[in-house]
Amino acid sequence: MTDFEKELETMAEQVDEQSEQPLPSIEEQKAIVEKFKKLEAEGKLTPEILEAHFAQFNDKNSPPIH
């Protein structure tokens, strides 16, 4: 087994150990979009608000997917 194959195997094991974040339901997604559109119309949609929402899907300790 080459070093590359060993590295791929290790990466595959790490991915298998991670718990998967469930996606919001369609209704929840629509509510989120509605909230963002309202904030945008009011001029209150900031990068900080978006970051706070999307941070829940970001695992800073994980290696890049690509």
Please explain how this structure is put together.
With 66 residues, the chain is mainly alpha-helical. The chain is built from 3 helices and no strands. The chain has helices at residues 3-17, 26-41, 47-54. The longest helix is centred in the middle third of the chain and has 16 residues, at 26-41. The protein starts with a helix and ends in a 12-residue tail after the last helix.
| Low-pLDDT sequence parts | none
Counting DSSP H or I runs of 4 or more residues, the number of helices is 3
- Approximately how much helix is present in the residues? 55-70%
What best-fitting shape do the alpha-carbon axes yield? elongated
Distance between the termini: 23 Å
What share of the residues does DSSP label as strand, in percent? under 5%
The main pleated sheet reads as: none
Q: Which radius of gyration do the C-alpha atoms yield?
A: 18 Å
Q: By helix and strand content, what is the structural category?
A: mainly alpha
Tell me, rounded to a whole number, the average pLDDT.
83
Tally the beta strands.
0
- What's the helix-strand series? HHH
Give me the secondary-structure topology.
Blueprint: H1 3-17, H2 26-41, H3 47-54
Features:
66 residues, mainly alpha, elongated
What's the gist of this structure?
Helices cover 59% and strands 0% of the residues.
